[in-house]
């Protein structure tokens, strides 16, 4: 039986590469995002094993409509890759825009939780898998990471708490926590279209690439059913840890 996997954030970056990798490996993939035209391009490439689903995670109504619109042959979803998400801005909390905070919370937490809640009964029935896209930002604080990091800490704890509830069902849950990753729209979105600023971040860093994440997702899905990888933190070799700063009075 070919498994069906729903991947959010399929119109760019990690999600795009995950869809490519999973279809190549023989899965049926529903790719969800707001930009349907991008998903149609992916459909051109991937063919009948891919279904493009227009869906805005910030609207529960829109998520309901999207799921209800799936044709019968795409209704039986085994596994969910909650990959969609975003950071907006890198301002200090005291200078940040609250609208940006709301968008991050609505997308990275509320949307992710709503979709998971909607699909979980099916996933339990089919003993599937939930893979959530966390981040190192959910563990290590950094200046300007305020709400973005907090949303990823939510995703991490939600993943672990799902494990606590799902024990005995055969459903697996993983929180995947990447560090600096280029080749996606992430920084362009964070810096609101400032291409130079976005590019500078990756210069000389040999950062994680979408293909690395896609291969990791496939590896997770293909682990034997008796193994659950709870959390998986990945960094580029070039990224490491720094000392904690101390502010000193002059
Ligand atoms: P991209 O910006 O390239 O992709 C983000 C995806 O999320 C897009 O497909 C976008 O599609 C989708 N998305 C955003 N908002 C919504 C929404 N309201 N409804 C539905 N889909 C939405 O970023 P990445 O591929 O880099 O990021 C993917 C995930 O990985 C995110 O959760 C991010 O936080 C996480 N991550 C990224 C890292 C990095 O350094 N790149 C490192 C660690 C984690 P559309 O605009 O068409 O809706
Ligand atoms: C993206 C990684 O370090 O820019 O989640 O927050 S980071």
Quaternary form: single chain
Query: How many DSSP helices?
Result: 8
Radius of gyration: 18 Å
SSE class = alpha/beta
State the fourth-level CATH superfamily: NAD(P)-binding Rossmann-like Domain
Q: Give the total of domains.
A: 1
How are the strands of the biggest sheet laid out side by side? 3-2-1-4-5-6-7
Provide the list of bound ligands, each named once.
NADPH dihydro-nicotinamide-adenine-dinucleotide phosphate, 2-hydroxyethylsulfonic acid
Helix content: 40-55%
What's the average pLDDT? 98
Summarize the main sheet: 7 strands, parallel
Q: Could you say what the CATH topology is called?
A: Rossmann fold
The CATH class label is Alpha Beta
Give the SSE layout.
Blueprint: E1 4-8, H1 13-24, E2 28-33, H2 36-46, E3 50-54, H3 60-68, E4 79-82, H4 98-125, E5 129-133, H5 146-166, E6 172-178, H6 186-190, H7 195-202, H8 210-221, E7 231-234
Parallel strand pairs: 1-2, 1-4, 2-3, 4-5, 5-6, 6-7
Helix pairs in contact: 1-8, 4-5
Bound molecules: NADPH dihydro-nicotinamide-adenine-dinucleotide phosphate (NDP) and 2-hydroxyethylsulfonic acid.
């Amino acid at each position: 039986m070919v498994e069906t996997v729903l991947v959010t954030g399929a119109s760019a970056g990690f999600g795009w590469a995950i869809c490519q990798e999973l279809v190549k490996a023989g899965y049926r993939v529903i790719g969800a995002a707001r930009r349907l035209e991008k998903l149609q391009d992916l459909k051109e490439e991937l063919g009948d094993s891919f279904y493009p689903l227009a869906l805005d995670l910030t609207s529960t109504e829109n998520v309901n409509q999207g799921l209800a619109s799936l044709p019968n042959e795409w209704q039986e979803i085994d596994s969910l890759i909650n990959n969609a998400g975003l950071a907006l801005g890198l301002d200090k909390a005291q200078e940040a825009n609250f609208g940006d905070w709301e968008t991050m919370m609505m997308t990275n937490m509320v949307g992710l939780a709503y979709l998971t809640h909607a699909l979980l009964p099916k996933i339990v029935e089919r003993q599937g898998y939930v893979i959530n896209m966390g981040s190192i930002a959910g563990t290590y604080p950094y200046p300007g990471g305020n709400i973005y990091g907090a949303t990823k800490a939510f995703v991490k704890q939600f993943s672990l708490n799902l494990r606590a509830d799902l024990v005995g069902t055969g459903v697996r849950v993983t929180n995947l926590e990447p560090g600096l990753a280029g080749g996606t729209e992430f920084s362009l979105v964070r810096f609101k279209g400032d291409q130079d600023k976005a590019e500078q971040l990756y210069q000389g860093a040999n950062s994680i690439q979408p293909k690395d994440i896609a291969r990791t997702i496939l590896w997770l899905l293909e682990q034997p059913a008796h193994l659950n990888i709870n959390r998986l933190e990945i960094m580029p070799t070039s990224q490491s840890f720094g000392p904690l700063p101390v502010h000193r009075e002059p």
